[in-house]
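Researcher: Next entry in the queue.
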Amino acid sequence: MIISLIVAMDENRAIGVKGRIPWHLPDDLKRFKTLTMGHHIIMGRKTFESIGKPLPGRIMVVITRQQRFQAEDCHVVHSINEAIELAKDRGETETFIIGGGEVFDQSLDLADRIYLTIVHTNVQATTFFPEIDQNMWSEIECDYHPADQKHLFPFTFKTLIKKNQTHTNSIDKIQ
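Model: Structure for this entry, 175 residues:
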């Protein structure tokens, strides 16, 4: 199973401001939907609560330390390892980790792929994506989009894959 992170961040790695995404980029949301549709998406409880509901067409897996937390139409687990195991046991081919900051910190080393949107701005943020060690990743896609009537900021879609790694062994890293 491929473990993928999917994130939009500014040029200083900012991803959130008080639980909210600090920009609205329709093409980024469309890419997110296209890539994640039909797959397990793994997120922390705060990210789930900021979304407010299960996303249609995806299997939602929420990580929380709260033992009694429940979310309708979602799987609730208590660790990143448990979330990945759940997706693997359900026959997933590629699972997507969508945040927030703490979940990204815990999962960056486990990831095989990063779908990255770099928003060409700098915002005052409360949540950041961890530093990416460029020596560990190869860029296989880079697609720049200028600002336009629907997009206040220019942005670049990138896809990174971990160097020297087979996707079938991803789950071994968490056991």
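Model: The radius of gyration is 16 Å.
Researcher: Noted, moving on.
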